[in-house]
């Protein structure tokens, strides 16, 4: 048994605690499973060529995601405060520089960025609930659904209305707090969503393009991953690019809610006796399963209808309705599906701002209601930029590095800020935290502790740095 470390073992969160380990797992899974799995994973897989991208993404989950998730939970539970204050407190306790609190600050900023566009996309899902319920999709074909989607995203006012509604929903839950707000939202929704995805896979199996969908998703073609091609004057031009690998890494962070303190703050509400390693592995497995099942539901529909896998952010909104439109009970299933998608987004959105809310309560003495209102207002305003990316600002002259405001924000937050935050978390947990402290907090048997420590000290940082260097063309 490791030596007792008195300072942190006494710490308690002022924000409350999850009532059990199961609730922690549900809440963290609620944070992890969201639009990232069902909306983003399929569309970036489509854009980056399929199987090889999926393989790299799975590798990133194993080598980078799981060890960092364990570290975030461990740091959070040890610090028992908002990520900013947790990092300050732990840095002090470990004799490290107070600047480590920058991990927390960077995370708050990333959370604002992500929530701002996350809420816009969740707004699309709300809009689709009503379209599905109203029978708009019955008997619809690929062209029809494209039209429905186009009509929605080209109308800024409608998008603002849905974005506002989703933001308000998120703020209400956050304002109610850990027990009353967050727990209730996650207990039964995730299993229901999963069941519905399985129903969709069942449908996809009967469309005739199931094999093609699976092949796209699981058969690695590394040329597609390593070469970025575009049509120039009617001829295809390809060049080696590290960008897709960075996208896979970024998505591993995004989908597991890592690198910005969301899982850290949830860890700070975790009961003392619970196993961190077991929980982290379970959450990562569940999250990955949902993403793969979503891919298995979507790509067969893409191929059966001659659609483009690289269609971009509209992919699921232009594929799934075709399935709902032609399956028995599709109106009901479609409605239910989009309702559950909204719930999945909801339980993720609340974790995106919890680090900032916890800090405002701790340091500014604000009530949760006030803190949530301020943060909601700021992210809502930022979200307008993403809304306009799909309509008023969709022209080339509004693009920077060929990316719209929405693309740029997503790229910056998911592919740069989260991996950078994760890298710093790995370095702090592996190199600056004493063996006694981390071993005590994990309370994990050998050789598992050493496996974590070896990975977080060497393999994880090396992998992240190599992907970065590769993406900027150094490797
Ligand atoms: N993991 C969420 C998803 O896959 O939809 C998104 C997310 C939530 C990212 C919370 C980051 C975060 F801190």
From TrEMBL:
Which GO MF term does the entry hold, naming one?
Answer: symporter activity
Query: Any signal peptide, and if so, which residues?
Result: none
- What domain of life? Bacteria
**Alphabetically ordered keywords of this record:** Membrane, Symport, Transmembrane, Transmembrane helix, Transport
The cross-references to InterPro entries, in alphabetical order and at most eight, read: Na/ntran_symport, SNS_sf, YocR/YhdH-like
Q: How does it sit in the membrane?
A: Multi-pass membrane protein
SUPFAM superfamilies membership: SNF-like
CC terms in the record's Gene Ontology section: membrane
Q: Where in the cell is it found?
A: Membrane
Q: What is its main location?
A: membrane
Residue stretches spanning the membrane: 21-39, 51-70, 102-130, 159-178, 185-205, 245-269, 281-303, 336-361, 373-393, 413-433, 454-474
Q: Which PANTHER family match?
A: TRANSPORTER (PTHR42948)
The family note in this entry says: Belongs to the sodium:neurotransmitter symporter (SNF) (TC 2.A.22) family.
Q: What is this protein called?
A: Transporter
Q: Which organism is it from?
A: endosymbiont of Riftia pachyptila (vent Ph05)
